[in-house]
Amino acid sequence: MDIRKVVTVVEETRREGAKEVDPPLTKVAVAAVLLNPYAGRYEEDLSELIEEGERLGGFLATRAAAALERQAESYGKAGIVGTDGELEHVAALIHPKFGNPLRDAVGGGKAIIPSAKKRGVPGSPIDIPLHFKDAAFVRTHFDAMELRVLDSPHPNEIVIAVALSDGGRPHARVGGLQISEAKGEDGLR
Are 143 and 74 spatial neighbours (Cβ–Cβ below 8 Å)? Predict the structure, then answer.
């Protein structure tokens, strides 16, 4: 796949509201800007993108995990297709084969990898949803990380991103399943 650029964003939260965050919460997003081979035309067979999704998932997740420095607790994925593409082009990249290499890069993960996709123009933002990687109902980790690549996507491009976090929301206190209570067996609880 033709990658025009790779963007890495590291966000470290040291204070939330009026209280220190100790240790600081780190979120990392790594995005690749790709040429869309199907831009401007309908193609029934998207297997080329599906196969590329597996390689891309490993590439982005490995870079994100290295930038995170600590063990990932949450993960998510997202994509923005340029105006000459289809949402299904993003889906082909991030759904069928993308997940297993991402899970490998973060040391496992039983829960579904939350995702978002949209059509956009250069600089369009996207919120990459984040959930706890081993149990989807751990409410403390329901979060997101915003990403925008100022010059992307061009009409014939796709931006694909992975986000990781080394913790849940700072000072989470709205109840629900806690990490210490999660069984991590079925990806839900």
Answer: yes
